[in-house]
Amino acid sequence: MATAPAEKRPPAKHVSLVVNGRAVELEIGSQPHQISPSHTLAHTLRETLGLTGTKVTCDNGACGTCTVLMDGAAILSCMTLTVECHGRSIISIEGLADGKTGKLDPLQQSFIDHTAFQCGFCTPGMIMSAKSLLLENPSPVEDEVKEALSGNFCRCISHYQVLRAVMAVAGKEA
Amino acid sequence: MSDEYRFIGRSTRRKDATEVVTGATRYVNDLKFAELLHGKVLRSPHPHANLKSIDKSRAEQLPGVKAVLTWEDVPDWKGGTPRITRVLDSKVRYVGDAVALVAATTEDIARQALSLIDVEYELLPAVFDVDAAMQPGAPQLYEQLPGNIVTPGMPAFGPNSLREVVMGDVEQGFGEADVIIEGTFGYENIPNPIPPEPPGAVALWEEPNRVTLWVSNQASYLDTIILHHVFGRKVEVRTHGAACGGSFGTKLLSWQLQSHAVLLSKATGRPVKLIYSKEEHIAAFVLRPGSRMQARVGMKKGGTVTAVSGKWLVDTGFYSMTTQAQVAVGCGEIQLMTRCANWDLQTAVVCTNRNASGGVRGFGGQELKCSFIPLLCQAMEQLDLDPVEFIKKNYVKPGDGYFWRDGAWYTYRGIDYSDSMEQGAQCFGWKENWQGWLQPSSVAGTKRRGVGVGVHGNADIGEDSSEAHVRLNPDGSVLLFSCITEHGTGQRSNYVKMVAEVLQVPMERVSITDADSQINPFEYGPFGSRGTYAIGSAAIRAAEDARRQLFEIIAPRLKARPDELDTADGVVFVTADPDRRTSWRAMGHERTILGYGRFDPDFTLANCMTTFVEVEVDTETGKVDLLRVVNATDVGQIIDPPGLEGQLNGCLGSSGIDSALFEETVLDDRTGHILNANMIDYKWRTFSELPSIDNVVLETPVDSNRFKAIGVGEVATSPGPMAILMAVSNAIGVWLHEYPATPERVLKALGRVKARSHTGGAA
């Protein structure tokens, strides 16, 4: 993972951040290729950077679907303004697999092995929330997993299979 | 699990698994289009009003706005059953009804343009209650529907479409009863499945009369048919079904949203994307029908139901598209669970000034039974009957008959579900926990536990038609043509699995086409639980047909008859002498083989789900905790164990069990506004509150298709709500009849708080 640049204050018309290991420089303005100060990170990821793996359900901070990692911690990208991300490192679902080999993150593989999804719309957010937990606490007990995922909405009820998928990799992370 | 199959019954990887976990799955809002415009809808703040004037000039002048449309600008396209609801009208009938449409270069500009449209409304009185709506002098929503009563019957089900249950002699039946109970019960809290993906569509119009849509719907082929009729049968419609981020029945049809996108594309000549906000999703998309049943039931001491009479009122909101179909299916389903010789159950579908109801998981039967079972419980209490014994006795048995949705009489030829009920009861520990009606199973201080049971089943597993093609390629690969979107059940992968099993090729060698209505044959769509039997049969038959053709072509080369051949892994061989073999390449390099399969409706089989629940009620706070769930069913043959588990676990969420605990849409019946149209105020279950779930799944072969399997996905949500009311009532020792069992209602039932007059729900 790339480290955040030391300069934290944004230059007047730019936001610099790292997305999935790649430096991204965004102009602030009202042209289609620019980002507005009102744009959320979810909007910028999806519409400006084309990273549509991050899904939006409520756009209101209530459901966890849009979860990404900011400097390793889970955040709601629908409640984060892109201009707040200057100097930060963002990982979205597209950035979890090994960039060189394409090998899936063990958590992604475990979701496949446990069929820990149904419609799949909430799945990227589930995986990112679980990833954040495992980065902070590599060997969580089941209640800690439940707590970490309690902000993630799923209507199909994939919860039970998700818990199994996360617990299967808990304690095994490198 | 049967050992005779190579893939069927085994846990196999979903075909789309890697895409799902890497974010590569393309839902409608993820698709890219050049020159795309964004659509938005101006919605009425009033529940009932005439549009006196609309001034759109300021909106049209906003840079970036490409079209602003009102009812005066659009063709007379109409939907609904009957087809009387205009795509845009001069009148609005609920808070949220479409007033004007905008297309602009960005969403922000489109949103801004909405605020620049000046509308003058002539307010009309509104009505929000079905009984009130039928009274003389009530506000009338449509000239064509006097008394706000929707024309009964679903034309698609034929001229005798079921609209009542009438048979035998109810007076004689009541005469034979040991107890007669009468009452009015309802399921009117409008629980919303709220799939995570908002409804949406992209439309691209091509002059003079062709349109292509990319849709997020559950049944994308059907959209082409519905829209063709809405557009006056003058427009050629093609649909691409993208991955569907949850539907639970609600995205069966989205004709209004789709029509709005089409109108905007027609007006601008550019592709237009229309995606609902979450507020629109909850307040202006499909709602569950409201159900109110005033009925009388007679019962004998042993649990024989001798007569049912009464009236079932169904609130469809401001129009109906499928509600008569839900009434027809519900009327069939109530017979499946109540073996009774004497019926006089009438129905009425009623319009009110709230957002419209539509298809939702449970499709009529859940709504009806959530009203009917509380009534049966009163009779069972009088007779001191164990509800599990009652359910076992009364669920349809082989040789029984019923009127189904087309009004015809069918004789049931499926299995007896008593075994699954019994095994579910054992897994749950029913006998140990059932202490009698209104008796808690245990008490510890202010915490009282209670148990309940519910049942539901549907003969929709063989409803409607499906077609499929299977193409064999000389390289040993296979392509299944089936117009199915993946909406979460994993069925696209399951059809691949069925085809792989028939042809004995690895699943990796079998692909399935995108859900494009132009390249695929007819497909009604994965309604109800029809996926496994109906859609699966078409895929199986197409694969069998292709296999037969393959053998006919290759037989001469192996100097054998076609019926002496078998195939596995792209090789054809003589069954009795496997060394006489050749690869599929022998069909010829310049050839493909196309098999065709079709399924025609069969209403003689039904599924069944029994759900047992245990709750703990805190009599101090009124809070109800769901501790345990056991679902019991029989599927004939499991196709995919993890997929099936997912469907059964779904009993909680998509307005199933939780619709009796805390889920409700709160409609303010003074203003017509929905007060909780967001995901903070609409309550949903989190990971921290998961009960234990055990699924008891039997596999008694059913005479359905090659794999002896039937579907159960849809019905998982339906038995739970009534089981919860039963369990809570037993826990607190007082009947609770309203959904959901909120703390306020529990404390009211216990006499700890006074009833207050409230509007809408109890939240």
Structure characterization notes:
The complex is a heterodimer of chains A (174) and B (763). With 174 residues, chain A is α+β, with helices and mostly antiparallel strands. Chain A is built from five helices and five strands. Chain A has a five-stranded mixed β-sheet with strand order 2-1-5-3-4, with helices on one face. In chain A, helix 2 (106-113) crosses helix 5 (159-169). The radius of gyration of chain A is 16 Å and the shape is globular. The mean pLDDT of chain A is 92. By secondary structure, chain B is an alpha+beta fold. Chain B folds into three domains: 17-26 and 464-599, Aldehyde Oxidoreductase, domain 4, CATH 3.30.365.10; 31-124 and 200-246 and 250-276, Aldehyde oxidase/xanthine dehydrogenase, a/b hammerhead (Aldehyde Oxidoreductase, domain 3); 290-461 and 604-749, 2-Layer Sandwich (Aldehyde Oxidoreductase, domain 4). Chain B has 18 helices and 32 strands. Chain B has an eight-stranded mixed β-sheet, with helices on both faces. A five-stranded mixed β-sheet of chain B has the order 9-17-16-15-10. A five-stranded mixed β-sheet of chain B has the order 20-21-30-31-32, with helices on both faces. Mean pLDDT of chain B is 97; it is low at 759-763. At the A-B interface, helix 2, helix 3, helix 4 and helix 5 of A face helix 1 and helix 16 of B.
Please describe the structure with a list of short key phrases separated by commas or semicolons:
heterodimer; A: 174 residues; alpha+beta; Ubiquitin-like (UB roll); DNA polymerase, domain 1; 2 domains; five-stranded mixed β-sheet; 5 helices; globular; B: 763 residues; Aldehyde Oxidoreductase, domain 4; Aldehyde Oxidoreductase, domain 3; 3 domains; eight-stranded mixed β-sheet; 18 helices; 32 strands; 24% helix; disordered C terminus
Structural class of chain A: alpha+beta
Which range best describes the helical content of chain A: under 10%, 10-25%, 25-40%, 40-55%, 55-70% or over 70%?
Answer: 25-40%
Architecture per CATH nomenclature, i.e. the level-2 architecture of the largest domain in chain B: 2-Layer Sandwich
Number of helices of chain B: 18
Largest sheet of chain A: 5 strands, mixed
**How would the global form of chain A be characterised?**
globular
Report how far the terminal alpha carbons of chain A are from each other. 14 Å
Number of helices of chain A: 5
